Task: inverse folding
């Protein structure tokens, strides 16, 4: 009888401890976007873009999704260099974030506030946030400015 009562409580405590450990592990990595307001422009039928919005929400961001008929026209509107294009655009803290950029790069961008227009992880690399598969190598995040200049921002 006592075992029937104690065992579920022990299991519950283990699950709570695992959840708290996971949350603290993400926080140690700096992967928290709690309360951050972001807007994601995406194709309404793009599954990986939807997964990326879930990724941002999972880190605490408040995500407003704007489905657009042509992401290419939005990329041109925001004057993102073509070499940095991807399948969606995120506006955050006055910056443009293009593609499946990991939270680590977004946090660095918002913390350092560099004099750039935005950052990008071009294409749709396997294993990046929102993309299926395994990470095959380092992700090179590029910065771009208002004059079309492109530089390496960071490598993750």
Result:
């Amino acid at each position: 009888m006592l075992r029937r009562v104690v065992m579920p409580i022990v299991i519950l405590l283990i699950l709570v401890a695992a959840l708290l450990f996971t949350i603290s592990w993400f926080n140690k990595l700096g992967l928290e976007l709690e309360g951050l307001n972001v807007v994601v422009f995406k194709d309404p039928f793009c599954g990986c873009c939807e997964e990326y919005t879930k990724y941002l929400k999972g880190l605490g961001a408040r995500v407003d999704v704007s489905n657009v008929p042509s992401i290419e026209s939005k990329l041109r509107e925001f004057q993102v260099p073509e070499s940095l294009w991807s399948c969606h655009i995120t506006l955050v803290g006055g910056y443009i974030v293009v593609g499946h950029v990991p939270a680590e790069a977004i946090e660095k961008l918002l913390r350092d506030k560099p004099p750039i227009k935005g950052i990008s992880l071009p294409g749709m690399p396997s294993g990046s946030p929102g993309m299926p598969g395994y990470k095959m190598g380092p992700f090179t995040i590029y910065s771009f400015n208002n004059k079309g200049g492109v530089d390496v921002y960071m490598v993750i």
User: Anything to note?
Assistant: DSSP finds four helices and seven strands in the chain.
